[in-house]
């Protein structure tokens, strides 16, 4: 059996509440459910269980320290045809360092993860095809949300998640959590 998996940072209740308020201000075509809000460190795709077990062992052995994280601003991915509406992350070397270590653990477990191109974000919602006026409203709302801040909070764990694709979009399950403890 294989599982569509990713490694992410889960968000505390208070941060999710702040993000729900931001979601309410944006004209999102499809909103990410608050319990599913997360910050992805590495998307793994469909992986067979033995590789995920090797990854689990690697993540269990990973030693990294907790660090503060601040969400900041909002934007759209997808250029002229935006697909993802996101909350951004204030520049954070500890996050980048953790991401590269996590990616290395995945590669060592036999799961290819691109070393480059980490664009940290929390997906707030998704768009299918948008009419030009819908797109303009969304872009204007993202610009207006530039002053958005949530946190900082102390990131104390990362998680291995399963993603199940359904007609209403993806649902996520936490398969395992790994405390960051030096
Ligand atoms: P997104 O929210 O910006 O789409 C689970 O799908 C998580 O992995 C999401 O946070 C998703 O980011 C991220 N991800 C990164 N690359 C992906 C890809 N090629 N396909 C699906 N999800 C991807």
From TrEMBL:
Organism (species): Gemmobacter lutimaris
Alphabetical UniProt keywords: Hydrolase
Catalytic activity, reaction form: a 3'-end 2',3'-cyclophospho-ribonucleotide-RNA + H2O = a 3'-end 2'-phospho-ribonucleotide-RNA + H(+)
Enzyme class: hydrolase
InterPro entries linked to this entry: Cyclic_Pdiesterase, RNA_CPDase
Catalytic residues, chain numbering: 38 (proton donor), 121 (proton acceptor)
Protein's UniProt name: RNA 2',3'-cyclic phosphodiesterase
This enzyme's EC code(s): 3.1.4.58
Source organism, top-level taxon: Bacteria
Motif (HXTX 2): 121-124
Family: Belongs to the 2H phosphoesterase superfamily. ThpR family.
GO molecular function: 2',3'-cyclic-nucleotide 3'-phosphodiesterase activity; RNA 2',3'-cyclic 3'-phosphodiesterase activity
HAMAP family according to UniProt: RNA_CPDase
Short motif (HXTX 1): ranges: 38-41
Function: Hydrolyzes RNA 2',3'-cyclic phosphodiester to an RNA 2'-phosphomonoester.
Keyword Hydrolase appears in the UniProt entry: yes
């Amino acid at each position: 059996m294989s599982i569509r998996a990713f490694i992410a940072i889960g968000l505390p209740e208070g941060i999710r509440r702040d993000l729900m308020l931001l979601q309410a201000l944006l004209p999102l075509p499809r909103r990410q459910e608050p319990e599913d809000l997360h910050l992805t460190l590495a998307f793994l795709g469909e992986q067979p269980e033995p590789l995920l077990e090797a990854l689990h062992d690697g993540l269990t052995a990973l030693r990294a320290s907790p660090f503060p994280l601040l969400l900041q601003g909002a934007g759209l991915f997808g250029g002229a045809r935006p697909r993802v509406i996101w909350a951004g992350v204030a520049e954070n070397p500890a996050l980048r360092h953790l991401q590269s270590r996590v990616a290395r653990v995945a590669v060592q477990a036999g799961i290819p993860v691109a070393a480059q191109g980490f664009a940290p974000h929390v997906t707030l919602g998704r768009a299918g095809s948008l009419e030009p006026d819908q797109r303009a409203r969304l872009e204007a709302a993202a610009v207006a949300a530039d002053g958005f801040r949530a946190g900082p909070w102390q990131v104390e764990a990362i998680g291995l998640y399963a993603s199940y694709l359904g007609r209403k979009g993806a649902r996520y399950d936490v398969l395992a959590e790994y405390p960051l403890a030096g």
